[in-house]
Amino acid sequence: MTFQQHSIVLAGDAPGQSTTLYWYAAGPETAATKVHLQAALHADEQPGTMALHHLLPMLRDADAAGALKARLVVFPSVNPLGLATRVLRRHIGRYDLETGVNFNRRWPDLYPLIAEAVAGKLGDDPNANLRTIRQAVGDWIDRQQPTTAAQRLRLLILKSAHDADIMLDLHCDDESLKHIFTSPDLMPGLQDLADRMQVAATLTAEDSGGGSFDEVLPNLYRKAQRANPDVPIPMGAETATLEYRGQADTHDDMGREDAQGLFDFFAGRGLIDVSPAPSRPAPGPTPFEATEVLRADRPGLLAYRVGLGDRVNKGDVVADIIAMDGPEAFLARTPLRAGTDGFILSRASAKFVVAGSSVAKIVGSDILPTRAGGYLLED
To answer: Cα dihedral angle (63, 65, 69, 72), rounded to 10 degrees?
Structure first.
């Protein structure tokens, strides 16, 4: 059996502080395909951890049966630093409290960092070029001298993922239907993943503006291709952020369902030697620029008029904002209207909002002028 738990103690930034990162590996180390799976990079998002909790025994059993044909590296809760950030009985696992940086933002733009190292070393063999690029990235990681625990954690995660053929980052939204974020050039290749997850939407963007983890490897290979147009360079990794509903949806039955979807995805790819059940088609990809992030234009209390999955037309009222100050405090209601045709993918669970708070995501089909070329994320 190859199924094995691993751990490493990360020294903290103050005396007496440390934390432990756990992960599992299974499958032949010499397998042609490497899969990197991680959950809870935003440490307050637990549905992915529940899914991996149920997936791990399935992988252990498949390993015992000799059915694993890929090397799988699984981080069920990849951010122990974020797990510890509780403030006044609330878990603030999305941000590094020392720097204020979102744990899933500002990941490195790798190609400029290794361009000099690969110059003159790329030739006619696409697989050799892929190995050269991955080696250069691994060497760059090994040369880094991190100072803080957060920097050390990031480099450990990146070291594991940098040579993966498939990298899946499990997250969730606030209140939400299942959906995927991925790069447009990875579709329709990842449609089988969307089908197995039974997502409501697959949202695509080359660069959503925040340096998210799932964009690091596609950006690396894309930039390498554009900088070296005369040599064959494969898109060396299929990556995606998997949004497993909302934060409150951390339940056994959902976790089992999500784990089965992942297991069947790998089996359908021939990475686990079992026959998966037939899948059902999910919607195809939509440009993320066609999704409106509807925001409150004033403070108040939300009164939703729509539910998840409801279709709206431009101008329809998504929610009323109940005034909480002024001459009509707690009497006046101001409608907040959709700016596009589409369906409600997500809503805010906290109903008190301030100006600029995200209220809903509306998935449409037409690219919105306010979204083209801009920062596409909510924070």
So the answer is: -10
pLDDT at position 328 over 90: yes
Cα–Cα distance, 16 to 139 (Å, whole number): 31
198, with CB counted inside 10 A (0-12, 13-18, 19+), is middle
Q: Where in the chain is the domain with CATH 3.40.630.10?
A: 4-283
Q: Helix (H, G, I), strand (E, B), or coil: what is residue 363? A: strand
Residue 373 clears pLDDT 90, i.e. is over it: no
List the strands of the sheet with 352-353, edge to edge. Answer: 333-337, 317-322, 300-304, 352-353
Which among 185, 242, 194 is positioned nearest to 38, based on CA atoms? 242
Give span(s): CATH 2.40.50.100, the chain.
Answer: 288-363
- Cβ burial, residue 140 (10 Å; 0-12/13-18/19+): middle
Q: Give the tens place of pLDDT for each residue, 274-299.
A: 999 999 999 999 999 999 999 999 99
3-class SS shares of the chain: helix, strand, coil, % to 5: 30, 25, 45
Q: Which CATH class is domain 288-363?
A: mainly beta
pLDDT at 201 over 90: yes
CB distance 287 to 371 below 8 Å: no
What is the CATH number assigned to the segment(s) 4-283?
Answer: 3.40.630.10
Neighbours of 74 (CB within 10 A): 22
274 HSE (CA, 13 A, CB side): 19
What is the predicted pLDDT for the residue at 1?
A: 85
Q: Token pair of 304, please?
A: 């939703």
CB contact at 8 A, 169 and 213: yes
CA 283 – CA 193 distance, rounded (Å): 11
